[in-house]
Structures are given as C-alpha cells and as structure tokens.
Amino acid sequence: MNLYNFLSILLIQFVILLPKIYVECRNPVEVDSHYSKVHEFINDKKSQGTRWAVLIAGSNGYMNYRHQADVCHAYQILKKGGIKDENIVVMMYDDIANNRENPKSGTIINNPHGEDVYHGVPKDYIGRDVNVGNFLNVLLGNRSALTGHGSGKVVSSGPNDTIFVYYSDHGGPGVLSMPMSKPLYADELNDALQKKHRLRTYKSMLIYVEACEAGSMFEGLLKPGMNIYATTASNATENSYAFYCPGEEPNLPPGYNTCLGDLYSINWMEHSEKYNMMTETLDKQYAVVRRRTMTKGSILGSNVIKYGDLKQLGSQSMYTYIGTNPGNGDNSSLKTDLESFATPSHYIDQRDTDLAYYQQQYQYAPMGSEKKTKAWQRCQNALQQRSYVDDSMDLIGKFLYGSNEMATNVMKALRPAGQSLVDDWSCYKTMVETYEKNCGPFSRHGLKHMRSLANMCNAGVKPENLAKASDYACSTLRKRPL
Ligand SMILES: *[C@@H]1O[C@H](CO)[C@@H](O)[C@H](O)[C@H]1NC(C)=O
Ligand SMILES: *[C@@H]1O[C@H](CO)[C@@H](O)[C@H](O)[C@H]1NC(C)=O
Ligand SMILES: *[C@@H]1O[C@H](CO)[C@@H](O)[C@H](O)[C@H]1NC(C)=O
Ligand SMILES: *[C@@H]1O[C@H](CO)[C@@H](O)[C@H](O)[C@H]1NC(C)=O
266 FRET partner, CA 20 to 30 A, in 2, 151, 322, 348? Predict the structure, then answer.
C-alpha cells in the first residue's frame, strides 16, 4: 500500500472518528447569579499572612504543550500580582521550551499573541521529580522528605497564610495524571488536605483543577469546615477542553501544531490579568469562568463546578490568593466582561488532542517525507490503542456478567452528584493495577474506562475476578489479527 492509500484511510478514519468523539452535548446549567458582597480589601490586608502557591503541570510531551504553558502563565500572573518566588513552587516536566518541535526555542506561549511565559519560571521540580509523593510533601511543607529532590522548596506556611493550588493536566475518574509515574488519586489528595488542616498551617486555600472529570477529585470527598474553596474545569463525569488549538480561530502563529492552552485555565487567567483582583471575588471569578467554559449551543464546553466552604470564602477577594497586577483595569462588571469574550467555532476535547496533533503533523509534513509516514503511523497506533482498550473492557464485561446489558448496567453507571466515585479506594487502585498488569496502560483515551473498575468495586467485584477477566480479555485481543 502506498502513502495515498494510507492517506485515504486516515482521512476516512478522521471523518468517522472525530464527530463520534465530540461527546453528548447538553444545555448549559443556569449560572449562579448571586454574588456575595465584595469584601473590603483593607480587612483582608490586615489579617493577611503570606500568600503561597503550588503550580503543577501533570503531563509531559510536546502534544501536551498546553499544560506546562498554562502553569508558566499562572506563574507570570502571580509574579505580577506581587507574590514572591520564594512562595511559589512550580512543578513541571520542562520538556517544552527546548523541544525540537518548538518553533520558538526557549519560549512557551499560552495564547496566539505569543508573549513568552517561560522566562523567569522557577524550576523547582522538573522531570521525574514531578510525582505524587513530591507534590503532597510540597503541599504539606515536609521539607525533610524533599531533601535531594529539585529545589527542595515547600509550602512552609503558617496559620495566617493563604495557599493557591493550580493543577493543569489530563485526568480520569478520581485521578490526576503525573508525567512518568502513578497518578494522584482523589483520596490521597483529600487525605493530604485534611492533614494540612489538622496541622493548622494555613488560613484558607483556593484550589483550581484543569482536567477531564476533575470534579471527581472532590465530589463527595472534600470535607466542609476546612476553609477550602475549589473549582474544577469539568464535573465528575465529563471531559474538559483544550483551547487555542491549531486549525481553530483565532489562528496560532506559524509553526505551532499543538494546542497552546486549556479552556477553563485560559478563562481564569485571562480574567485574572485583566481586572483588579482586589475587587473580584472568588464567586465572581467562578461565575465568569463557568459562563465562559460551558457548552453554548453546538459548541461543547464543560461544567465548571465549585466545592468546599463556598459560603464562608466566596466573597473573599481573588487578591487574597493571587495578588493583583497594579496595571490591571479597574473593577469589572460581569455583563460587560461576558460581552467582550469572543467564542471560537469549537473546542477540542482534551482526550482528542493527541489525534489533532498527529493530524497537524501529518498535514504539514512534506509529501513522501519520513515525518509524514511517522505521523501517520503514530496516529494509527493511537487509534489501535483506543480500540484495544475499548474492546478489552467489552470483553471483560462479557466475561464477568455474561450479557452485555448486565455489564453495561454496572460498568457505565454514574453516581449522583454529592457521592464519591468509589467507596473503597484501595479496591479501586488494586483494580487499576490488575487491569494494567494484564492489558497494559490505560493511556489518555482509556482513562475514562477506569470508572468501570470503580463501579465494579462498588458492586462487590473482587480484584481476583478482574484478574481472570482481564487476563482472558487481553490475551484474546493479542491473538486477534490486526
Ligand atoms: C515527611 O515525610 C517523611 C518521609 O516521607 C515521613 O516519614 C514523615 O512522616 C513526613 N512528615 C510529615 C509531617 O508529614
Ligand atoms: C496571626 O495573626 C494573628 C492576628 O492578626 C496574630 O496575633 C498572630 O501572631 C499571627 N500568627 C502568626 C504565626 O503570624
Ligand atoms: C471599584 O473599586 C473601587 C476600589 O478599588 C471602589 O471604590 C469603587 O466603588 C468600585 N466601583 C464599582 C463600580 O464597583
Ligand atoms: C456533568 O456533565 C455532563 C456533560 O455535560 C452532564 O451530562 C451531566 O449531567 C453532568 N453531571 C452533573 C452531576 O452535573
């Protein structure tokens, strides 16, 4: 088969696949229209301790450019807001700025205008030091645990201090990914937050999470009374969206074949760098970001959700956490802000950014080049990997439940809002390990299937049963001709 045959197959697959992947659409939920009164920032100032921040990108690889770009951009906002480097911990793999594919070596941009956001970013934890253990120890201020890792910088906060945590990444049901190692599970995050609260080493905390199914990190898990306000890019059961992607309006500068940012992240950051954060409250930023991120007609977006001590903290100013750039415009009105926000034709589902990336690589490589063949192959591999994981879950369902219907009832079930993904997290982790041992890694696309394993735990399936089922399913699939 020559390249032209490959091309037609590839194009057909894109045509068939892409519409399918733009998951079900849904009417936007009404925006909470009640804004609490703006706090006197003078009061904030009096009792304000030190502002701390942890900024973490949980991915690596050029196709995930956007997560590290988001985090670098967040750093610039905090820096201009007056937060000192010694109080900002940055965790990022750091394989983007000097990547071979980067058209402007040594820089990272987070929007099509292309201002560099990489300069000055502290490289506290890079490469394999971006992992669960280090992240939790940074947050808990456990300096001794970090000896010999990265800069050793930790959030050594006291009882009057505030903490801002921002995480940008791929995620799945109850997990946030890490670049080269096991993911952060929701129970571990919430346990660490409870520990931090018991240690009385913060006054209040603001947590922003960009990831697919990000709501599952807090849904039914974040305990009230810990002075934490968290918002997530997506609810517990939906994907989140990339933004400023190739082939979309507004156009990217020439040479960029990867998405530059993520929708929720861009929305909070562009809001934060435009307005006076002394007069913008947490509730107001939430409302603006929620409104900008949600589905509008046929343009799919995601539901930004807030969790935690919303009543107690919602009227605090954003300034309490991220400071403010004295050059920012004066206080905004929500209405004019929304009017000034332009919407592109569509956003790319975070889980499909790999395909979009290969498609771009393919499209712009010279005819007959090795680069073109490689892009095609990588795309084929990604598609094959998707169907392998999908098929393996189907076979596991059949093995365990006999009928498809029975399997679907258990495996596709969604728990209602307010209930956590799974009751027994250790069962869930064992299930994930068991599957991956027999079938290989879930990979980005497969992350969504992890919910089926959580559901099995909730339905009393034992890891031993999954071990048999996944061994059967994946040994069957490996024997199947391609
Ligand atoms: C700090 O980390 C070390 C090593 O992981 C652990 O043994 C210790 O209990 C931790 N201390 C706190 C206060 O979390
Ligand atoms: C925290 O603030 C209170 C009230 O302003 C003050 O009395 C106290 O000394 C502060 N504690 C620390 C550790 O700074
Ligand atoms: C804007 O904020 C200032 C304080 O920075 C306040 O005095 C003024 O009343 C606010 N204006 C509006 C229209 O909210
Ligand atoms: C989460 O989002 C999905 C997709 O938009 C929607 O169908 C579902 O109802 C939402 N769930 C909750 C609990 O809001």
Answer: 151
- Secondary structure (DSSP) of 302-351: ---EEEESHHHHTTSBTHHHH---TTSBS---HHHHHHT----S--EEGG
CATH 3.30.750.200 fits 13-339, yes or no: no
Which amino acid, residue 208?
Y
Our answer to whether residue 170 is catalytic in this structure is yes
- Which residues have CB under 8 Å from 463's CB, separation 6+? 427, 430, 431, 434
Q: Where are the domains of the chain?
A: 13-339, 370-479
Query: From the CA of 142, how far away is ligand 1's center (Å)?
Result: 6
Q: Which of 39, 73, 170, 449 is catalytic?
A: 170
Give the ligand at the shortest distance from the Cα of 300.
Answer: 4
Q: Which ligand is nearest to the CA of 48?
A: 2
Q: Looking at ligand 2, which residue's alpha carbon is closest to its atom 1?
A: 160
In the reported structure, the alpha carbon of residue 146 is separated from the centroid of ligand 1 by a whole-number distance in angstroms of 10
pLDDT tens track of the chain, all 482 residues? 343 444 444 544 544 444 333 222 222 222 222 223 333 444 445 567 999 999 999 999 999 999 999 999 999 999 999 999 999 999 999 999 999 999 999 999 999 998 999 999 999 999 999 999 999 999 999 999 999 999 999 999 999 999 999 999 999 999 999 999 999 999 999 999 999 999 999 999 999 999 999 999 999 999 999 999 999 999 999 999 999 999 888 889 999 999 999 999 999 999 999 899 999 999 999 999 999 999 888 888 999 999 999 999 999 999 999 999 998 877 665 555 655 555 666 788 888 888 889 988 888 899 999 999 999 999 999 899 999 999 999 999 999 999 888 899 899 999 999 999 999 999 999 999 999 999 999 988 899 999 999 999 999 999 999 999 999 999 999 988 76
CATH topology for 370-479 is: Topoisomerase I; Chain A, domain 4 (1.10.132)
For residue 195, give the ligand 1 atom closest to its CA: 14
212 part of the active site: yes
Q: Does residue 470 line the site of ligand 4, with CB under 6 A?
A: no
The residues lining ligand 1, judged by C-beta closer than 6 Å to any ligand atom, are 137, 140, 142, 144-145
Phi, psi of 56 (to 5 degrees): -135, 130
Alpha-carbon distance of 212 to 302, in angstroms, equals 9
Q: How many CB atoms lie within 10 A of CB 264?
A: 29
